[in-house]
Amino acid sequence: MELAQRPTIVAMKGHPCTGKSTLALMLASKLQKCVVIDPDDVYDCIRDLCPTEHLMDLSFEAIGRIASKQLRSGIFQVIIIDSPLSSKAHLERLRQISTDVGTLLLIIECKPQDQYEWQRRLEQRGGSSEPEDLERLQEWYNGCGDYDTGNDVSKLVADTTKGFTFTNDHLDTAVRMLRSYKGTYTVDFNTWVEEFYPPLENDYRKETPKIEGETERERMERIFGGPFIHIPHLLTLSTSNIATSASCRGCLKPIISGPFYSCALCDLSIHKLCAELPDKKQLEPNQAPPFVNPSSHEYCFPETHECKIHADANLGFVADCYDCAFNTHLRSALVPTAVLHDCHQHPLFFTILSTLNKHGNTLFECHACGDLGGSAYYSCIECKLKVDVNCALLPPTRKDRHHRHNLTLTAPPPSGDNSDIEIYCNSCEKLRNPKHWIYYCAECEFASHLYCDRVTSTG
């Protein structure tokens, strides 16, 4: 059995209103042979039958026995226990069950960093809305459950109060990867997802040899028990003139020789011209990308194209598959796959997480403008930054009614020394972040927000 398919107990941990139940149900929707057990269901049944001080312990013992029996029976491969795990004794009980049954124990801990957002959720759930009552409640919760879980159990630490939309695919991929490791790790879930799940120390995949004829992506999918629908292709440019038997995934014509882009994880190849699409590089500010319906913000590609895995399985196009979405993008050729941008030293590559998402889903902070971006964007493989599609495809110059010269799209100095660039927007006279891209006149030191008071593009 591959490690990624090991029987597993997933224990949720965290205070009320931190997102435990939401994440538990999202994960259960993706995992096979999986069930969620909530101690509150047992608690509500026995609350009138025993003293109050023993209710939580009795409820947890009951679900522990249920979990143990279900895992031994083989009916379920994954048991998700939706409990605050506020008592260390409860964790020790799960450790004992995991050892007795021979399963993996994994913790998903929800820790809100935004106390104001957590307070808002507590207030929405009900009870007193008086500030002093909520503050006392937060103080009590903050002191409850703060114990060391040890280094013998892997743990995902998630902050659901960040400007970040978790999907069930994010959780599914992260849990499958942790289940595939022999060692135990504590991982910041938000950062791991944003960086596309970089390998952890002593990565198990290094010890697993390829099967003959298997691509690197296929090997990783075999190790981790399923397709990687949220890991973008790692594209590099080849300028070699050595003949290749590959075909371009964009135009479907043979690639006779370089230059072309190829993926380090799979057999994807694409002509340099098909990837960069020099005639389709610009979007007007506030113009919806051509693959997005401006009214509904839904994706509206003219046609869909399935990935190789789903084509071989005769499943056709699958809307929540990253590769199906990416193939659809390549064949549609509506925006470039690779952008060589004057504001960044490395190429920016197009990423679309799935066609189920709306373009307005907040997944990241745009490096160019600072706004929350959608589920399609350009990213730098080396620097891990993300740029919204609109920002990446802005015209290189523009006119401004407050200035006589053309303004040039400019990135801030990489050293962070912004002494020669004003921190106010000269168009609207409002503060601007010196780390964000601007339209700028170097001769007059005139700086403007990317989307401020534009008249017309000039290039």
TrEMBL record:
What keyword terms does UniProt attach to this protein? Answer: Kinase, Repeat, Transferase
Matching InterPro entries:
C1-like_sf (IPR046349), DC1 (IPR004146), P-loop_NTPase (IPR027417)
What sequence ranges are listed for the domain DC1? 230-275, 343-392, 401-452
Locate the transmembrane regions by residue number. Answer: none
MF (Gene Ontology):
kinase activity
In its keyword annotation, does this UniProt entry include Transferase? yes
- Record flagged with keyword Transferase: yes
Q: List the SUPFAM superfamilies.
A: Cysteine-rich domain (SSF57889), P-loop containing nucleoside triphosphate hydrolases (SSF52540)
Any one Pfam family match given in the protein's UniProt record, by short name: C1_2
The record's section on PANTHER family has: OS07G0160300 PROTEIN
Any idea what this protein is called?
A: A-kinase anchor protein
List the taxonomic lineage. Answer: Eukaryota, Viridiplantae, Streptophyta, Embryophyta, Tracheophyta
